[in-house]
Amino acid sequence: MKLIKKMSMVISSVLMLSASAFAQNKPNFTIHGDLNKLTAPPAKVYLIYAPFLNQPTDSATVTSGKYEFKGYTKEAIGAEISLTAKTDPANPKDKATIILDKGELNVVTGPAFDQITVTGSGAKAHTDFAGAINKGHSEILAVNKEMASDSFKNDAEYKKAVTARFYHAISSSLNDLIVFARANPQSPVSPYLAYVLSSSGFVTHAMSDTLAQNVPNLSEPTKLHQAINDVIAKQKDLDNKVAANNKELDSKAPIGSKAIEFTQPDANGKPVSLASFKGKYVLVDFWASWCAPCRAENPNVVKAYDTYKSKGLSIVGVSLDGKNTKAAWLAAIKKDGLTWTQVSDLTGWNNEVAKLYGVQSIPQNFLIDPNGNIIGKNLRGDELNKKLASLFN
Hints:
The chain has 393 residues and is of the alpha+beta class. The chain is 40% helix and 19% strand. The protein has a 5-stranded mixed β-sheet with strand order 13-12-11-14-15, with helices on one face. Helix 9 (292-308) packs parallel to helix 12.
């Protein structure tokens, strides 16, 4: 549920955020708001800007169902019109997203506060944004409604199905925005989309860099462009730290080195040592029952084992399952047809063998020759098959 809340907040960010430097410049946009389609228009509405702008929330009094905001912006950037001075991600219907740009913006609210249409000389950016986001918007709204139902709270299978739909809808919506920003770099809203997507945490750092490079006039000293630069700089710094860490971990068991000896209990609690496989080719395969990529790779490992076990291939599966997933581990062994030796100390990511070999992601494997030397690592799919064919055929 924490991931669901985080993803909901990301989509909320995609459907909101920012505006511009306001106080020191002559207003160059005007919002003319109309709330007369609401059954009970509020007495006041608020315009909320992005945190990176350091711009205080503005407010406007509603008179006869109408309100007005004036402000300044250097570029198209998102904002929220809200019923409250500080929005709550748990109440998405209390706010509506608008993309601010130079000119007049006529905002007509529908029967619900979060339903708006925007026209006027400054509406181009908002229209582009709405076109990109609305493809999956109806599905997101439908899923959000189902997640608030009693069935979602009380029916485990229903909850599982709706959650899967939620992830798919979020992924599709983010992908729609990425496709639009890349295909339309000249759209006034594309730089803002580059910032929202890059800072969301749900696109790769490489994609963030691609989006940033696609933004026109990135060197222009606006707060939005600076925010994009800051995000990319932090991501590159993180990537450098990860690379340095991976290099250090790789030094624990590099190709060409002697395999590190270990002993761990098998599924029946019997100790199994790597030394007992001396004189054979051994694939030490790190996986877990809860690891979807591992489970997807298992059929390929099964095929490799069935092909080469008679020629001298052994496999030792090292599971990163924990005590609370032991039953799932045993069930996965049976379901996936893993007939080779399986060991685990049932400590999850604290598995001692994983630490010895510097394993920080799975699936991962190490191929060891009869002399105890590591001759391959991270062999998956065709790479594993080609390597074994070169040894046994």
